[in-house]
Give the backbone structure.
Amino acid sequence: MESSRLGFLTPVNLDEVRANGKRKALIEHFALERSINLLWAPAGTGKTSFMFAFSKYLTSLGLETAFIDTDNGVDILQDRGYDKLIEALKGKLRYINADTFDEPKKSIMDTLSVIKENAKDNAYKNCAFIFDSLKFFLNGGIYDEDKIEKFITFCKAIRRAGGLVFVLNHATKKGDSMKGGQSLVDAVDECWQMTALPETDTHYNYMLDPEKVRMAVKKVGFSVDKESYDFLPLDIEIASMGTAERAFCDSVIKLIKDKSYTQGELLHSLGKDKADRTALDCLKKHIGRFWDVKKAGKEKVYTTVTTVQLCGESA
């Protein structure tokens, strides 16, 4: 048998690849096992609150979670009630804050070294790592190729050991507007743009839009309880609603809460013309979500549904 001219190359070991099994979704369409994710949004959007809720949810699935926070001062823990959550998740959530160290940079880098040293075999199966924020880990926010490659290599070591990685980034624009940013976006499995939606008295609301769709992901919405940091899915139709549509739906829900309305009565009460196409389309779009419709002769009669979820609250 003729020897291969490419015999000096080491091919992938398919037995090792298959031993991991197919990558499963921890949260449908959003968080997949053994993946590296970059999540970006402008400062003040609520990334940290979102990630604490996300961490809590991951622990409920049985994942041990490490939250390496180099962005927030330690006082924020009591200001926002994160301390109670960390205490409740003791043993499941390992929260490390750079602000607690005399030499933050050295101490955090030592921590990263230990994480990488332990990234062997399946050491991080059922583990998640959250890094907040990217600026620190790229040494002052300088997006050069060498620093990107070094950090992504570190993240890949975690992934090879079975871990899930989320890296937070303060950005006002997408990666391709940052020096070296596109290389960073290209290197991760998925890049997410996070948008804060209007919040309620009890809930924060977020929409996350994937840029690459390399994995089985798509645009998703989540609602976070401000007290408990419970993490709930948010109907993507709700998450995508504009201000005008949201106000219209709110008005309809309030009107039909105590009595039924024909379509004509409903539109009249809302100050809308019976032929208002925008209003009619909205009424049709949210049948079964915010209201039900039944026929009474030639009339359409709108009634309330048992449970209405609008941006994190039930009515």
Remarks:
- The chain has twelve helices and 16 strands.
- The CA atoms of residues 118 and 124 lie 9 Å apart.
- The first strand starts at residue 25 and ends at 27.
